[in-house]
Amino acid sequence: MNIEKLREVLAQARHEAAKVIIGQHDVIDNALIVIFTGNHALVEGIPGVAKTLLVRTLAQILGCDFARIQFTPDLMPADITGTNVFNLQRNEFSLMKGPIFTSFLLADEINRAPAKTQSALLQAMQERAVTIDRETHPLPPNFTVFATQNPIEFEGTYPLPEAQKDRFMLKISMHAPDRADEVALARRTMTKESPEALLADGAVRPVIQPQDLVLLREALALIAMREELLAYAVDVVRATREHEAVLVGAGPRATQSLIMAARAQAAISGRDFATPDDVKTMASPVLEHRLILRPEFEIEGLHAGEVIQQVLQQVAVPR
Length: 319
Fold this sequence. Notes:
- Helix content is 46%, strand content 16%.
- The protein has two domains: 3-221, 3-Layer(aba) Sandwich (Rossmann fold), CATH 3.40.50; 223-319, Helicase, Ruva Protein, domain 3 (Orthogonal Bundle).
- The chain has helices at residues 3-20, 25-36, 51-61, 77-81, 115-118, 122-127, 162-165, 179-189, 195-200, 210-219, 227-242, 252-268, 276-287, 295-299, 304-314, and strands at residues 41-45, 66-70, 82-87, 92-97, 104-108, 129-132, 135-138, 144-149, 170-174, 246-248, 292-293.
- By secondary structure, it is of the alpha/beta class.
């Protein structure tokens, strides 16, 4: 696969997704960046902004399987991974695979389950494999986790462990649509062209086969990134560790994510080279969920996004 094919597929995927997802163009781009770099995303937004619909749509566009897990306080790790069940007819144990054995996994309201259950995803996200009763089972090469969390319902939630948050490449924030998009959505609801109906009727067509996705990911390596730009991305991440308001800054995995995201952003923009603007654009989605601020600054109302903007202003941009 070459860069031209990658650009073509990305453009087609954006076009098909726009048939169902009204507005939210940046959200679609960020979701595609996560998929085409082989990573995972944390999706945050109020109810009803099409978080689930987004993942279902992208799975259909890219020809991949889709599964959904509703995380609840009583959810157990075996409910996610599966378990071995004794088969009386064959007098042996058989594996009953859980919903994690899929390509696109929607972990809905992931912060409603305790840490023990959340940790069931760690090995899968890092190694694309699951260990059940000491036996390791591989997951599909396109395995991608989209974990949603609701920012306004704090009661009955558990904070995500830092190790798990660090495995999410991006935090995708989905906001309520603007007035024009909401009017368009309301108009569609009164017809047979509602987003859910379009998806169910097959109006969204697959643009590639699942096996092609692996080859397209390899094409991202052809996106040029100058040494000075590489150092700029490293300096941005390191600066988060030295900011006075930050208790725990972004680690080396964040540096890798920022570099990959910048290259994918360049591909979506139709270029075969990355620029400082690509790094700036992806800095907040990559770093925001990884920073832990000092309590005294949080009390004053400072947010991680504001810290990242301050860091971007401080670090010298390569020419």
